[in-house]
Amino acid sequence: MEQESMKPCPLCGGEVRIHRRTDGQVDGIVCDECLLTLEAVNILPEWHTLDELVRRWNARAAVTDEQFAMAVHDGEAWQVVRTCRNIGFETGDDFKCSACGEAYNESDDMAMPASRIDWCFSCGAKVVG
To answer: What is the C-alpha end-to-end distance of the chain, expressed in Å?
Structure first.
C-alpha cells in the first residue's frame, strides 16, 4: 500500500517532516516552521508505524475557525475531524478524553483550565458536548 502524503501544518501551513530517533524508529511528525509535533508515544505502540502516524496527522482536529479553514483545500475536507467528549466527571478527573482515555487535571503543570479545553492534548480529537 502506498504511503499517504502528509498534509501541511494546521497551525501555520508549514511543511512537515517525519522525525526519527537515532535507532531509526519513527518518533513523530514535526512542522519545520512552528515546531508543532505529533509524537508516536510509547503508550500507543501502534502509532510507531509510519502509516498510522501519517493517518493520525492528517486526521487531527482543527480547533479554531481559522485552523479549520486550513484543513479544507479546494473546498474539500481532507478528512472528517475526529471528536471526543470530556468524561472526567465519571473518573474524578477535570478532563478525560472519551476517545483515547488520557486524563488532565488542573493541578497538573498546564496553565489552561479544564473547562476551556476544546481539543485533546493527546490524540487531537475535537471536544464536543
So the answer is: 37
